Amino acid sequence: MDRISDGRREATEIRLRAYPPDILREEDFELHRAPVPRSLEAGELLLANSWLSLDASARLRMRESDSPYMPRITLGGPISGFALGRVLSSRRSGFAEGDLVLHSSGWRTHAVIRADETGWRGPHRIVEEPGMSEAAYLTALGPAGLTAYVGMVKLLDPRPGDVIFVSAAGGGIGSLAVQLAKIAGARVVASAGSAEKRDLVLGLGADVALDRRVPDLSAALRTAAPGGIHGYFDCVGGPELEAAIDNARPGARIVMCGTVSNYDTQSGSLPRNLFAIVAKELSVKGYLTRSYAELLPTVQAEMAKLVRDGRLRDRVTILKGIDSVPRAFVSLFRGEHVGKLLIQL
Amino acid sequence: MDRISDGRREATEIRLRAYPPDILREEDFELHRAPVPRSLEAGELLLANSWLSLDASARLRMRESDSPYMPRITLGGPISGFALGRVLSSRRSGFAEGDLVLHSSGWRTHAVIRADETGWRGPHRIVEEPGMSEAAYLTALGPAGLTAYVGMVKLLDPRPGDVIFVSAAGGGIGSLAVQLAKIAGARVVASAGSAEKRDLVLGLGADVALDRRVPDLSAALRTAAPGGIHGYFDCVGGPELEAAIDNARPGARIVMCGTVSNYDTQSGSLPRNLFAIVAKELSVKGYLTRSYAELLPTVQAEMAKLVRDGRLRDRVTILKGIDSVPRAFVSLFRGEHVGKLLIQL
C-alpha cells in the first residue's frame, strides 16, 4: 500500500439516517466525519471532490426495500451520486495526480474509487475542453447533457417546425432539452413550477413557458399548442404526462427519462387517458442514460462546441460546502432551484 | 331512384336512449323498427345484415361529450359497428346483388351504405376464401384478426423462446393473439377472467393461463414467468398493464390495442409503476387497426391458410337475433362471453 500525504486531515460524508417513508426531511441525513484515507490498494484512486451533482433519482434508492431497478442505499454508509474530483493519489493506470475525474462517489468530500468500479458510473478521466468551466462536466458536458441529448436529439429527433413540449424545463436536464429542441428548429412549449424558472426558460429560447401548477395544465398546453404536439420530453410523469397525452398529435412520440413527480411517494397523479396511447398511436419510450454511455465523448464535444458558439447555456444553482447537501437535496423535490443543482466543495 | 323489392318488410335497429354516465345497462338501448328502405341514391348499397360484431370500443362513443378520438353516437339514430351483410340492391360500382360485404353499419338488420362511406370502415366486398365460414370475416379474417396480427406479428414480433404475456386472452382478439404468438415459437402466459376462458386459452396452446381476478396479478405473472416477459399484448390497461410493466425484462415491448378496463368509467386502476418504463427502457406503442387497413387482404389470406392447416382456431360466442344485442353488449363488460361475440341475424 502507498502512503498518501494530503493537506486536509478530515473527510466528510453524508449518510442516510433512516429510510424516509414518504416526504424526505433534512433530518433524514447526518454528516459523518472521518480521517482522509491514507493508503490505497492496487487499482484504487483517491479523489478530492470539487463538485457534487444532486440528482432526484437518488430518492428512489432511499427506501427500505430494494427497488427492482436500483439497489437501496445502505444506512450507515456513503450515498452515491455523480461528482467531479481531482486525483490526490492513484494506483490505477490511466489516472494521474491532478486529473479531473467524473465518477459516482459523490455526497462526500473525499472518495476512494475501488478497483472494481468501472463502466458508466466511472471513474471517467475528463479530457478538458478549452474554455469550459469545471462544473460543466456535471451539466451540459456531463450526465445531464447526455440525458438531454439522448432524449431530445437521438430519440425525439424533432424536425424544423415540430411542436415539442418539455416539462421540468427549468431544471438541469430540461433546460438543456429546451435548447437542443430550439437548435433543431422546433417550436418549444415548456413547463416549469415557478415564475423564476419560466423566465429562465424563455431566456433560453422557449416559445411558451407554462406554469405547471395551473389547475388544468392540459388546457393550458392546448392553448399554447392548438394544433397539438409532435413530441414530449418527460422527466416528470404525473399531470405533465397526462397533458402531453391529451395534446399529442396522432403518431406523436414521448420519451421518458424520469417520473420525478412520484419519486417521493411512489404514487400521485398518473395518466387517466391511457386510451389515447391507442387512439393516437403514440410511441412511449423510456431510456436510461447509462445505456448510451458510449456517446459521452461525442456529446461532450458537440455540447462544448454549442457552448463556445453561444448557442447553448448551462443553468446551474450552486450551493457551497458539504454541510449544505441535506437541505439542498430535500429542496430539490420542492422545485426550489433553477437549473442543475450543484454543490461546490 | 331505384325501387327495391325485398321479402322482409321491417328493418330493426338498436338505438341509444341516453348517454350512460358509467356502468352501461340494458335499458340504455331501445329497438327501433321501420320499413326496409325501398329506394337508393346513386352510389348507395342496401344490405341485409347477416352477422353483427359487438366491440367494446363502441362504449367509448356512448358519451355525452365527443371524445377527442371518436365522434359520439347520436341519440335517436343508429349505432355503428362492424357487420357482414349481403347486397340486396346496389347502385355502387364493384358491388352486385348477393355479394358479401364487411362494413360498419352494424347494430341493425338492414343498412343503407351511403356513397361517401369508404375506407377502413367499408364497405369491403369480401373475396370468399374456400372452406371459411361467413362469420370468419368478422373474426380471424376480419377486423379482430387484423388487430391481433398487427399487434402480435408486426409490432411485437416475438422470437422463438420469447415469453409473451397476453391479457383478455379469452376474448376475440386475445385468443387470436395467443395463437399467433405460439406459431412464432413464443412461450405464452395468458390471463383471462373466468375458468371457462382459461380452459379455452390453454386449449389454444397458451403455456400458462392466469386468473386476472387474483389479488396480486403481478405476483402471479412473476411466478409464471420468473425471468420476466419480453413482450405484452394489451387490450385491457389497468392491473394487467401494471403487472406487465412490473415483470417486463429490460427493453421489453408493450403494444396496446385497447384499454377496455376503463371504457365504462374512464377511470380505474392505472399503472403506479411508470418509472419502470424509464428504468427498464420499455417501449410502449399504441396502434389503431385502421392504420393498417392495407394489410387486410394479406392477413385474410394468411389467416385462412392457418385456419385450413388447423393451426389457428376461431373462438366465438354466437347469440341470435337483433333483440339480443342490448343484453349481449352490456355483458361484454362483465367478461361473460368466450371468444369474439357475434350476433347472427
TrEMBL record, chains A, B:
Keyword Oxidoreductase: yes
Residue span, Enoyl reductase (ER) domain: 25-343
Keyword Protein transport: no
SUPFAM superfamilies: GroES-like (SSF50129), NAD(P)-binding Rossmann-fold domains (SSF51735)
UniProt-recorded Gene Ontology molecular function terms: oxidoreductase activity, acting on the CH-CH group of donors, NAD or NADP as acceptor
Keywords: Oxidoreductase
CDD domains linked to this entry: PGDH
Gene3D superfamilies per record: Medium-chain alcohol dehydrogenases, catalytic domain, NAD(P)-binding Rossmann-like Domain
Pfam families: ADH_N_2, ADH_zinc_N
InterPro entries (UniProt xref): ADH-like_C, ADH_N_2, ER, GroES-like_sf, MDR_fam, NAD(P)-bd_dom_sf
Name recorded for this polypeptide: NADP-dependent oxidoreductase
